[in-house]
Write a structure and sequence with these properties.
6% helix; 183 residues; mainly beta; 3-stranded antiparallel β-sheet; 1 helix
Length: 183
Amino acid sequence: MLTTAAATSSQTTAPASASAAAGETVTIETRFGAIDFDRATTLTLPHGMMGFAEFQEYGLANLPDPRLAAFKLLQCLSEPSLSFIVVHQSPDGARVSPGDLEAAFDALGVAKADRATLYAVAVRRTGDQVEMSINLRAPILIDTRRQLGRQYVLPNNAYAVRHRVAQPDFPTGQATGAEQNKA
């Protein structure tokens, strides 16, 4: 469900977009409940996420459960059923080398002061077992000044697409994304 209103939201954390009207919000019924996104903070991914090129406008929000504070919701603003759980860095400390990230940002023309990196998280449930992994090979590189992002495939094949990490204690019955995402 998608609704629009004129207000501000304290839940979103994505950078501002020049094309949005000041104070305009969109309320999306996400798998975590209704979340308001300030249209002025829209993050544009001109090429979309891999496998979802036609979806280019996203909001970034905190997850409602405090136990999941390390994670964010990257929510498509035009398709409520499309979202990705993301993390600023690997929960287990595994990271892409600074040199590889710097080369990627340089290739995209992003100034050092305007760089942010997110990693897509995949959560898979099999019975009682939960497996969580992050995609180190294709981080989401963000130019915070221009509010632009791109999922970038690193040329160094040393990074796993499914780097396994220890999972937090997910709330019972909470949708984790494996059912809805290809992250």
